Known about the structure:
Bound molecules: uridine-5'-diphosphate
Distance between the termini: 14 Å
Strand content: 15-25%
Low-confidence stretches: none
Radius of gyration: 22 Å
Number of helices: 12
Amino acid sequence: xxxxxxxxxxxxxxxxxxxxxxxxxxxxxxxxxxxxxxxxxxxxxxxxxxxxxxxxxxxxxxxxxxxxxxxxxxxxxxxxxxxxxxxxxxxxxxxxxxxxxxxxxxxxxxxxxxxxxxxxxxxxxxxxxxxxxxxxxxxxxxxxxxxxxxxxxxxxxxxxxxxxxxxxxxxxxxxxxxxxxxxxxxxxxxxxxxxxxxxxxxxxxxxxxxxxxxxxxxxxxxxxxxxxxxxxxxxxxxxxxxxxxxxxxxxxxxxxxxxxxxxxxxxxxxxxxxxxxxxxxxxxxxxxxxxxxxxxxxxxxxxxxxxxxxxxxxxxxxxxxxxxxxxxxxxxxxxxxxxxxxxxxxxxxxxxxxxxxxxxxxxxxxxxxxxxxxxxx
Length: 377
Ligand code: UDP
């Protein structure tokens, strides 16, 4: 068997970069290509030239994790500044705090509940006839009841996913906690932060290695495969197979930027939960870097829609049809030699950054071991 010498990684997002780095550290020469003109995939950050503000080009990304190895890893490649994501939500003409917490409940129902009184009250609202919630809607009705579901989740979810919440899995809503305290931290994780110099700088630092070669503006073509002993693919799973079985469904996002001065909305992210606005949320990027000061401001209004062939895929939809098609692609992937599929697009899953890094580290460990023993996937 030929020893593994040349590795091609397609995609310079977290998956591709972390695997490249780990393999390079293990002594393997790695080439990384990305069709875009920047690294970091959809986590890409850049300084806006009109305001000098660090902008999350593909929407808000807040780093949070419970995983020690992942936190050690990311902080090795970039300074993380303390940052707590506190989201506001507009519903029925009022501004509330999300995730649903004691303040949200008291404000919404016009009460002054204590934590235990709120808990009992919400239990009365909940539809306890739903034993094991399977859909997003069932999960919401079971745990927060009809009124809060309709105010905060129903229309937002239809805008975000383009389908009724009864068609979506409960797992999407399980991302959000419900709290009976005034804690309005959007995440429960032990570690949370924002990179001082942006996500792209972290990826640049990860990729800075004598035996990693990076080519931007460089698309994968099948003939490249013969020049490499192994390919690691972090692009869309169906794209690797030229969509031969059909297209997996994704949602894409459109951002409409607008400029102003001072503090335009008072918070990084405000969600719009009613269907009177077509957009889902507005992000004011300067609030992601509270340690900087800027006179001007840039905001992004965010719209979600189905992803066409020429669009950038963001969220895997994973409805019943997609899951059936996914199984067929996974089958093809298992039968393909010399390629490993990784990351959100390569495995068609809704992954947060920390999970992406964790899986990339594990994949790199497994690949390095396989290359040594020649048990190549
Ligand atoms: N969601 C909602 N209303 C909100 C915020 C979230 O209905 O104000 C739902 C929506 O379906 C969303 C899901 O909860 O897709 C998960 O929210 P999260 O904030 O994790 O979404 P992301 O930031 O990944 O878009």
